[in-house]
Specification:
Chain A: Keywords: Cell membrane, Membrane, Transmembrane, Transmembrane helix. The structure holds two protein chains of two kinds. Chain A is an alpha+beta fold. Helix content of chain A is 48%, strand content 16%. The two termini of chain A are 27 Å apart. Chain B is built from 13 helices and eleven strands. Classes of the chains: A alpha+beta, B alpha+beta.
């Protein structure tokens, strides 16, 4: 029976090629456009640290200047960066099981034997807790020693991708990598850690915070490292006149950056339970008050601890523009579905005399209904399949428009493909159900009379 | 004449079919009106003049090999030589690349006698040629001369501020020339005098016209120009070229710099326009997407109306034949179908106004968009109306081929 109905449906589609293909294209375009936007939003709203969501927190402190105006860039009313001095105090404390201070840096990467072409790579300069806190497992070796976070040790941890690139994936522990022409010893190789969006560091855009190379936190003075990213002076003291800069050597000038309220570091802490959290806040308060009293901080004590999902929301990773486009796309899908229903209804009603003959020959209403539903289902199916294809086209179009970092991740995954298929089926059933029901309700006498 | 009665009765008999089309026109209006408005706003932002000669500017980064810093002599020699190249209008040393979104900004609360106000500005370090290279006009006073230039800001005496900063710091209508100001744009007046007594003060010698130098939209009061050579590991030169000379100069300038001193790395030759495009990427995306939305929804609705009218015409062939046989003219029949379409679209637009304002309310409330002006609503209505009419026109014309004899053939 089913195959017979399929045959009938196919015949009917063929009999009205223009109207049928119009319906198929309408559904396909609707599904494609909405799926393109839903995929974009889905990619943007992913949380790569969902598993750590109730354990790790991004830290903010009210470390602005007392007469600073709000330039609109503040989140929770506070800057999203902290000073080196604060980072040092937190690293030295035992207030939380794991504390990570970090910033982005860039370096030219090469090997001593010149076997690879030097490339400029993003480097994460961080404290050793980074790997434990974010749950990045080691493949070879282990993290650098505690001392490497405090004093200059030319050591490096690389990830699987970088190890593949530099050493063909061999166990490279003990070998040297050149960063800006200086050798660093590989102490460990970790699995790739590249959540998209890069929730651990959103300061340079939602997808620009991942790195393949990790350097210890003790190298700042030796290299006079400055972040590849934002650095702000947030004190009310006049930066250019508080010290006589002409008399300072470069070392002394750099020391000023480390000791005064230049803010440029991100801090994450691991607080597995409420008790630890409470203890940490107590520590934070006493540290802040102490620094307030000696004049380092100028504003009242305030802090914020944001879980990865809160941090993503706070940083507007899914932009309003994306949301507006998604809303428009879904409205557009509605237009397409309505359009298909109208066309299908008009088309099927034209065939009502045919249905009347079938009814007169003894077909039940439900038989008429299922026959017509199969016809609209066929159109929906064709539209859906075409829609999936078109949505891939739409995505490659979107990739041309967005930034390179974003373009790397805007691809449909299992979830969005499944959603597309479901959407296509639902759209076609919605579009087909009413017309099929309507035609099965045709009164027998009337249908025959019009013959 | 307009056969409203028969049309309404026909539509009433086909309630569901008609209401689907009504709903579709309504939604189409909602999308078209809102998308046009968002599109227009973004285009305005993109086309907004920045006030600098953005079309003819490019920057180049120079870095000495090794760990050394740049010397003032080196910068002066380079800029002097660059200005000699044919096709170069002017060249200067500059601390931040124009329209790159990277800049140094300060926001300070200042206190006048009884009011508190925020001054927010960009600090831009440049040489005497800076303003002319950017293509920004000087409104008052003078720009820097060679004797103003210092190696250390501590020795600096003078600054130039943009009109916006002058108005914010000293009040509109006050002559800023000769006034004192800090690098954060604070004047030492009122209660403020005391707080700023230890700060370094500069004398304002000139006022530049307002221009968006560092970012595309004006996000602050303006710019303060500082006359000093920042000791750094790399410098950026800004080059302004004569029309259509940019491409050639982007090759000639690096060569010249290499020729002057080969022991340095020359990178990052980029036009200010490319920086601007990068800054406005999200807006460009929005423009393309909104345009796509308008085109797609119009074509789907247009094609839908064509298809439906086609079906309706075919279903009523016999009826048309009878009417023709009873003396209706061809044009009369065409008019009937057009009127039918007009009526349906008009009812749709009435609902559409509600949907459009509803959608706009949603955008305003949740996504920080702006309220839709009435003109866009009217424009959208006109578009959808025209769309419906022109889509119905072709199938309606097909009725002219139906001969009165059709009426005799059936049954």
């Amino acid at each position: 029976m089913l195959t017979y109905y399929m045959q009938l449906a196919w015949l009917s589609v063929k009999r009205t090629p223009i109207i049928s293909s119009l319906m198929i294209v309408t559904l396909a375009v609707g599904v494609a456009v909405s799926m393109t936007m839903v995929t974009l939003q889905h990619v943007m709203s992913a949380n790569g640290l969902a598993e750590q969501n109730d354990r790790v927190y991004a830290l903010q402190l009210n470390n602005g200047s007392k007469n600073q105006g709000d330039d609109g860039g503040l989140k929770n009313g506070m800057a999203d960066l902290l000073s080196y001095r604060t980072a040092r105090a937190l690293l030295a404390s035992h207030a939380a099981p794991h504390v990570v201070a970090m910033h982005r840096w860039a370096a030219a990467v090469s090997l001593a034997d010149n076997s690879i072409k030097p490339t400029k790579e993003m480097v994460r300069v961080t404290s050793r807790d980074f790997f434990a806190l974010f749950g990045v497992p080691f493949i070879y070796g282990k993290v650098w020693d505690k001392q490497a976070d405090d004093e200059a040790r030319y050591q490096v941890v690389i990830d699987r991708t970088m190890n593949q690139h530099l050493f063909n994936g061999e166990n490279s522990v003990g070998r040297d990598v050149q960063l800006n022409g200086r050798p660093y010893q590989v102490v460990g190789v970790v699995e790739d850690f590249a959540p998209n969006p890069s929730v651990q560091d959103l300061t340079q855009g939602a997808f620009a915070g991942n790195a393949n190379i990790y350097l210890p936190f003790g190298l700042h003075r030796a290299l006079q490292m400055l972040p590849n990213g934002n650095m702000r002076y947030s004190s009310s003291k006049d930066a250019d006149t508080s010290a006589s800069t002409e008399a300072l050597t470069p070392e002394q000038q750099y020391e000023r950056i480390l000791q005064e309220r230049f803010i440029w570091l991100q801090i994450w802490v691991e607080l597995p339970d409420e008790q630890t959290k409470a203890n940490f806040v107590t520590f934070l308060k006493s540290y802040f008050d102490e620094q307030y009293n000696n004049g380092f901080y100028e504003r009242d004590f305030d802090y914020a601890l944001s879980s990865p999902s809160e941090w993503l929301a706070l940083n507007d990773v899914v932009s309003n523009d994306t949301r507006v486009m998604t809303l428009m796309a879904l409205t557009f899908l509605l237009v397409c579905i309505i359009n298909s229903i109208a066309l299908l209804l008009a088309k099927l009603l034209r065939q009502s005399s045919e249905a009347g003959v079938r009814r007169a020959l003894g077909a039940s209403r439900s038989a008429i209904f299922s026959q017509n539903l199969i016809e609209s289902g066929l159109i929906g199916l064709l539209g859906g399949v075409l829609g999936i294809g078109l949505s891939q086209l739409g995505l490659s179009f979107v990739r041309m428009l967005v930034s390179t970092e974003e373009a790397r991740v805007v691809y449909s995954d299992g979830f969005t493909i499944t959603l597309t298929v479901l959407l296509a089926i639902i759209a076609s059933i919605l579009a087909g159900c009413y017309p099929a029901w309507r035609i099965s309700q045709t009164s027998l006498a009337q249908a025959l009379k019009s013959q | 004449m307009f056969e409203f009665g028969p049309i309404l009765r026909t539509l009433w008999r086909n309630k569901i079919g008609a209401s689907l089309i009504i709903l579709q026109s309504a939604l189409t209006l909602a999308i078209v009106a809102n998308a046009t408005f968002v599109l227009q706003q973004r285009l305005q932002l993109i086309n907004q003049p920045t006030g600098i000669d953005e079309q003819h500017l490019f920057t180049i980064d120079v870095k000495p090999l090794g760990q050394g810093l740049f010397s003032v002599g080196e910068i002066q020699r380079d800029t002097l030589e660059l200005r000699q190249i044919t096709g170069v209008v002017d060249a200067s040393y500059i601390s931040d690349k124009p329209l790159s979104g990277s800049y140094s900004q300060s926001n300070r609360n200042a206190q006048d006698d009884d009011t508190t106000f925020t001054i927010s500005l960009n600090q831009l370090t440049t040489d005497p040629h800076g303003l002319h290279t950017l293509g920004v006009a000087l409104e008052q006073g003078r720009f820097f001369n060679d004797s103003d230039m210092v190696r250390d800001l501590k020795e600096g005496k003078v600054v130039v501020i943009s009109r916006g900063v002058a108005d914010a710091a000293f009040g509109e209508g006050v002559n800023p020339i000769g006034q004192q100001i800090t690098t954060f744009g604070l004047p030492p007046t009122g209660k403020h005098k005391q707080a700023l007594k230890d700060s370094q003060l500069f004398t304002v010698v000139g006022v530049a016209a307002d221009a968006n130098i560092t970012s595309v939209a004006s996000v602050n009061d303006g710019v303060i120009f500082l006359p000093f050579y920042q000791p750094d590991k790399s410098v950026t030169y800004l080059i302004r070229c004569q029309p259509s000379q940019c491409n050639q100069l982007m090759l000639a300038v690096p060569q010249k710099l290499k020729q002057l001193d080969n022991h340095r790395i020359i990178t990052g030759v980029s036009t200010v326009m490319s920086n601007k495009d990068e800054l406005l990427r999200a807006d460009h995306t929005m423009v393309v997407m909104m345009m796509a939305a308008i085109v797609l929804v119009s074509s789907i609705t247009g094609l839908g109306v064509i298809g439906l009218t086609l079906i309706w015409v075919n279903r009523r062939r016999w009826q048309i034949g009878v009417r023709r046989a009873l003396g209706a003219t061809r044009m009369g029949i065409v008019r009937y179908f057009l009127m039918e379409n007009l009526l349906v679209t008009s009812i749709g637009l009435c609902f559409g106004v509600i949907l459009t304002l509803g959608l706009n309310q949603l955008l305003v409330e949740y996504y920080q968009m702006q309220a839709l002006p009435l003109s866009y609503l009217l424009l959208g209505m006109a578009c959808v109306w025209l769309l419906g009419l022109s889509a119905a026109f072709v199938p309606a014309l097909r009725t002219t081929t139906i001969s009165p004899a059709v009426a005799t053939r059936s049954i």
